[in-house]
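User: I've been trying to design a sequence by hand for this structure and keep getting stuck. Would you show me what you'd pick, starting by listing the structure so we're on the same page?

Assistant: Good idea, let's start from the same input. This is the structure you sent:
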């Protein structure tokens, strides 16, 4: 049988890794897919650039539209990134009746609804496993492996750059800015690290995971994002002393009145497996009603880890190319006409626990004023710790039980106005991430 012919858009790290994996494991891949899979054409900006893989037998071009318009190409693999030219190319490939595999989380998170509708109308597939958590097959796990479950919540370390920075801050007591400079030198962070350290990259990925987990449309603009730029080594150390670790988590939870969709620094009990995921590694914890909590761990980036997910999608596409489109696994796990309109909750309506660090004058009655305000807003305190006094000012750490975020916002506004409180109040959310 004739091999399936692939057109590759982008010959960078992942593109090179994809070609390498396809060539090295050609026999195994053919046995799994039922047909060979070969890259016959690829688009790159610079044809003279040194490649990490031999491109013999591949027609190279600087025009990506030549690939998507090539009638001999069966599947287009989009590895360009961004949501401008990539969106045009994917849309054109679908219009030409070609299946698409992409590693582009921004494209799917922001434009996936329309792309999937176009693909549905044309009877083609759009596969995007590599868009979330690199080589971890988390999308397949939720969409297929956990199909018998009602997903209750998921929480993920889905940005390796932020996780590397927090790991270094914890292990070596370093400050954020210092570690960020090293992450840039190592190639873990871009020259402009905003997408990573402000939680935007993770929010793209969380948007996709939430849609698949809960059967809702992709709604990136409604995701709450908070970065790690204001975290200090002091708070990382205090959390450790209290039995917690700070992780930048993407959290999606099914609540009684909607879906929580949020990315922010989070205190997690140190005994949890996900709290011990260090460096640039990724992990996603998923709680299903039947299976309970399950953890998926692995590399979130890199040439061959990401290529592993791209090739897995190619195998899936090849297996299903002859299947009736109505019998294929839906893009977002649920049938398109069965997606739910359950709302995404604003942060003010989210319930969670909190770590608070404040500096107060070390004199009688100060703590009573703070606890009275918390009590007035129905905020229950789990623990209070004084971490030392300097120049008559004490550092107070409070851990609270779960409470509505609106109540905490109101409480902090009142506490800041107390004349005995100095400086900013640090607020970090806490999650138990247990089986309940």
């Amino acid at each position: 049988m004739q091999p399936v012919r692939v057109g590759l858009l982008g010959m960078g790290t992942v593109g090179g890794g994809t070609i390498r994996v396809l060539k090295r494991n050609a026999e195994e891949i053919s046995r799994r897919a039922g047909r060979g899979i070969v890259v016959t054409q690829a688009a790159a900006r610079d044809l003279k650039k040194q490649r990490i893989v031999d491109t013999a037998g591949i027609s190279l071009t600087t025009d990506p539209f030549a690939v998507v318009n090539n009638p001999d190409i069966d599947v287009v693999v989009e590895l360009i990134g961004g949501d401008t030219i990539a969106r045009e190319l994917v849309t054109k490939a679908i219009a030409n009746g070609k299946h698409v595999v992409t590693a582009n989380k921004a494209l799917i998170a922001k434009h996936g609804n329309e792309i999937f509708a176009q693909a549905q109308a044309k009877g083609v597939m759009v596969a995007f496993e590599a868009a979330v958590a690199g080589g971890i097959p988390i999308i397949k796990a939720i969409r297929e492996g956990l199909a018998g479950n009602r997903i209750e919540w998921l929480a993920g370390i889905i940005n390796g750059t932020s996780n590397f920075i927090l790991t270094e801050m914890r292990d070596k007591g370093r400050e954020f800015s210092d570690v960020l400079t090293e992450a840039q030198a190592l190639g873990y962070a871009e020259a402009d690290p905003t997408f990573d350290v402000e939680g935007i990259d993770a929010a793209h990925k969380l948007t996709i995971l939430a849609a698949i987990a809960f059967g809702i449309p992709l709604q990136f603009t409604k995701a709450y994002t908070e970065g790690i730029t204001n975290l200090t080594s002091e708070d990382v150390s205090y959390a450790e002393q209290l039995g917690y670790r700070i992780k930048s988590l993407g959290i999606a939870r099914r609540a009684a009145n909607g879906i929580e969709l949020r990315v922010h620094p989070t205190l997690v009990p140190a005994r949890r497996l996900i709290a011990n995921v260090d460096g640039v590694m990724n992990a996603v914890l998923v709680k299903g009603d039947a299976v309970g909590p399950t953890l998926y761990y692995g590399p979130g980036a890199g040439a061959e880890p990401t290529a592993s997910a791209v090739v897995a999608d190619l195998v899936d596409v090849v297996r299903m190319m002859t299947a009736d489109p109505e019998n294929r696994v839906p893009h977002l796990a649920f049938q398109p006409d069965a997606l739910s309109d359950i709302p995404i909750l604003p942060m003010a309506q989210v319930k969670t626990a909190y770590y608070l660090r404040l500096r107060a004058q070390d004199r009688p009655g100060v703590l009573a004023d703070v606890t009275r305000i918390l009590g007035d807003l129905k905020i229950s305190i789990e623990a209070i710790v004084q971490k030392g006094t300097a120049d008559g000012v004490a550092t107070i750490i409070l851990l609270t039980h779960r409470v509505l975020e609106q109540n905490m916002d109101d409480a902090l506004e009142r506490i800041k106005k107390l004349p005995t409180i100095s400086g900013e109040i640090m607020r970090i959310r806490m999650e138990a991430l247990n089986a309940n």
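That's my pick for every position. To get oriented when you compare it with your attempt: The chain has a mean pLDDT of 93. Residues 17 and 415 are 54 Å apart (CA to CA).
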